[in-house]
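Appendix C. Worked example: AI-2E family transporter
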Amino acid sequence: MKTVDRAPWFALPERRGDMVRFVFYLAVAAACVWLGLSLAWSIREALLLAFAAVVGAVLLLAAAEPIERRAGLPRHWSLALVGVLLLLLLSGFFWLLGSRLQAQMTDLAGQLPAAINSIQQKLGIAAPGQAGHLNGGNIGLSGIGSGIQDLLGSLVSLGGTVLTGLSGLVLVVVGAFFFAAAPALYRIGLVKLFPKDLHDRIDDALIMAGRALRLWLLGQLIAMAIVGVLVCLGTWLIGLSAPLALGLFAGVTEFIPVIGPILGAVPAVLLALGQGGWVTLWTLLLFIVIQQIESNMIMPLVQRRLIELPPALLLFALLAIGLLFGMIGVLIATPLTVVLYVLVKKLYVRDLLGEETRVPGEG
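Step 2, the predicted output written as structure tokens:
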């Protein structure tokens, strides 16, 4: 049998002139990569907001496509109808429960400091800053001035944070509608950044990633709704104040994997500790039971029907993205992990390495 000599996948040039050109091109490529990474890092917040808009577009399309199919409406009209329905639902929610929710949120914000002070007194822990500005029971004028300056600085910082958050939210919502109106336009534009022989593979991988992201978002919304209702009913039966606010907070924090359920339990546990006795025990048991129901019943059922990700991968992805990008990174860490997980399995494990593997969102 005749053997065919195959050239190695990488070989250095043999002639001196070719070697010089090779080193030059390699240096140019390395410089371009470095400049690209530096530019991406300098605009990382804008890129994160753009990805958040993509997540919002996936949700809008999930709601608009059934209307588009059944009513025969064009895409822009179905999206407009979804936007109107969302506004009506939010308006109805705040009209029916807004005043009660606002009162409970105010009540919760007023009771949490008192509960924390009660816990500190019971444990004999002094709050930071309580012993610093007092001198024989009298507060000096310098202490008052310093306190006013600190308060004004905190208010200015809080106002800037709120304005930044609102502007970012507006950009995400507007961008989500733009992406949802013509998703193929942006997907094809991204595909054309790669060599032509990779267009089909990249396009298939992006379609799979979008489908997997939609399935994960659907499962997460189901889990958030169930956890929020269970917390609201449980804290109401125990007798804690502001059960609607506690349920809403627990449902929203459920979006954050791993640490979300812990964060959602903090306000209720603090209120219960302030009351002490059996209230604390029942509150702890409530969140333990809800956590067990979520871990062993809700999420396995949802993931078996929709999409499942390795828990350790979510944990360390949340840690890494949070350290790199801060709070915005924590909020979008899981959907970003879903997309990267699909792209790696499809483009690298299956297409490049040739390994048989199941890709979430396929079929």
